[in-house]
DNA sequence: GTCTATACCCGGATAGAC
DNA sequence: GTCTATCCGGGTATAGAC
């Protein structure tokens, strides 16, 4: 036995607790307003100890984002096992629905796109970049397949669709609608899935062939 | 004469220069990383003088956002004078195109949605809230009209469409695509307009009536 | 109203004992 | 590895002379 040393298990548990604390603070305050002191307090250890695990604030954020990517990859893997979903477009819809539910659950961290220091640190983080590429490859296959089947707009380059899906995963519209408190959460999810795939334009009415009405 | 005192004109010019400096810094660094020192340097005056015009960093951001709303309202007004655009949906498309061009020109400031101090300051700023309501009313009329004409999805509540339009005005997808440097800017704009109104799903092909081809 | 200089505080990171 | 205590840069805001 002794396959995994006890010490290491404790380490893992602690680091998981830290990353979850980071996640909560990223959700509630955002990256810039998240303080390392706050993370330490939330995770229940001192700041100095925290720095033994993660060497900088950027590393903390990278760990949280890596965990998010891992969750997404796991979700993709799980969807693949369910043979009920044959076509690629349905898979992508399910995935979008999943990201919206993660948002609703208050578990979706989002980082500022403009902070060059942070983005540089992310690009330098192999754990993060490897996962990002892995997920993008998985989604890219679905996207191309769906376009081939005529289920996704073939006019749009696959990367445009990919980035759009990433953007919808942290779209502020959901937070605003939820904050207004005037709608059922299930409705919000359906509206956003609909607007992502069909846009805000009217669904095209297929008029009877005999006579085309004047709109 | 002397309708407007000379002093006041100078004041206005100076404050305009300040607001434009704020705008540039909000675009390049974002709110949190924008420093008041930086604004003062960019606008060409000292920090202490700057505080004689604007009482806080939040007020600076509010002034920049107010100016953006004024630009948008002016754009709406201008579109209305052009009788070439009859229907409401076309008006909204034109407006989205305008927001994307503002983004491409590097003139679109965007604030973090999570910063409660800042959002509280914005809500307390009449100049800002009045303009926001004014713009929302204008857009709301177009949205409802377009839905009535069957040109916008009537399933979506008007506010969902409104918030979606606001969100697309600062959608990170454009920045990412632009940064990749692999596409023409005009193409990017068209793709994003398309995905906003038609979604990423395939455009419905209207097959000839006689015989529907197998895709 | 503009400047220089500074008060004040906060946050990231580290030292050094245990 | 964990803690307490501290360093230090930098950011907001202000004082006070001109």
Helix content of chain A: 55-70%
Distance between the termini of chain A: 74 Å
Major β-sheet annotation of chain A: none
What structural category do the secondary elements of chain A indicate? mainly alpha
Mean pLDDT of chain A: 93
Total strand count of chain A, please?
0
| Number of continuous helical runs of chain A | 10
In N-to-C order, the SSE pattern of chain A is HHHHHHHHHH
Keywords:
homodimer, 215 residues, mainly alpha, globular, DNA-binding
Molecular structure report:
The structure is a homodimer of 215-residue chains. Chain A is an all-alpha fold and 215 residues long. Chain A is built from 10 helices and no strands. Chains A and B meet through helix 8, helix 9 and helix 10 of A and helix 8, helix 9 and helix 10 of B. The first copy, chain A, binds a DNA duplex (18 and 18 nucleotides) through helix 3.
Give the topology, please.
Two copies of one chain form a homodimer.
Chain A: H1 6-29, H2 36-43, H3 47-53, H4 57-81, H5 88-104, H6 116-123, H7 126-148, H8 158-168, H9 172-180, H10 185-198
The structure holds a DNA duplex (18 and 18 nucleotides).
Brief description of this entry?
The structure is a homodimer of 215-residue chains. Chain A has 215 residues and is mostly helical. Chain A has helices spanning 6-29, 36-43, 47-53, 57-81, 88-104, 116-123, 126-148, 158-168, 172-180, 185-198.
């Amino acid at each position: 036995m002794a396959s995994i040393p006890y010490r290491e298990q404790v380490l893992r548990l602690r680091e998981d607790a830290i990353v979850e604390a980071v996640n909560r603070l990223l959700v509630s305050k955002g990256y810039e307003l998240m303080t390392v002191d706050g993370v330490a307090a939330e995770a229940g250890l001192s700041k100095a100890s925290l720095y033994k695990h993660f060497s900088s604030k950027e590393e903390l954020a990278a760990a949280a984002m890596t965990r998010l990517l891992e969750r997404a990859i796991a979700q993709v893997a799980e969807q693949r096992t369910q043979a009920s979903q044959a076509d690629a477009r349905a898979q992508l819809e399910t995935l979008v629905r999943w990201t919206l539910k993660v948002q609703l659950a208050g578990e979706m961290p989002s980082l500022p796109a403009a902070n060059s220091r942070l983005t540089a640190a992310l690009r330098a983080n192999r754990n993060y970049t490897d996962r990002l590429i892995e997920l993008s490859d998985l989604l890219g296959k679905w996207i191309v397949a769906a376009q081939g089947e005529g289920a996704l707009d073939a006019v749009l380059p696959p990367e445009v669709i990919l980035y759009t899906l990433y953007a919808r995963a942290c779209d502020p519209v959901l937070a605003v609608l939820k904050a207004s408190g005037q709608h059922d959460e299930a409705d919000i999810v359906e509206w956003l899935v609909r607007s992502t795939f069909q846009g805000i334009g009217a669904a095209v009415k297929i008029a009877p062939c005999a006579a085309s009405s004047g709109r």
